[in-house]
Amino acid sequence: MEMFSSAVVGELVNRSVSFLFSKFEKETTVTVQEDLQRLRHLLLRSGAIVWDAEQRYIQSKAMLLQFMDLRDKTFMGSYVLDAARCRATIGTGVSHRNGKDGDNEVDRRAFTLSRFNPAKRVRFPYNASEIGFVLNFASPVDLQEMVSSLEFMLRDMKEFVMFLASCPPLYRQPYSAHMFVEKCMFGRHMEKERVMKFLLQTGPPHSAEKGKHLDVLPIVGPAYIGKSTFVEHVCQDERIRSHFSLILVYSRNCLKDETAAGFRDNCLIKHQNDNALEEKLLIVIELSWDVDDETWERLYSSERSMPHGSKMIITSRSKEIVRFGTTQALSLKCLPTEAYWYFFKRLAFGSDDPEQHPKLVSMAMEMAHKMKGSFMYAHIASALLRANFNIRGWTMVLTNMREFMQKNVSLLGEEYPDDLNDHPQCTWNLTKQKHDEYFMLYEICPRRSGAEDVPDITMMDLLFGCAQPRGKYEVLIWKSQIPPYFNYVCTCETVICEQ
Question: Which of 34, 165, 334, 406 is the most exposed place for a label (fewest CB within 10 A)?
Answer without folding.
Answer: 165
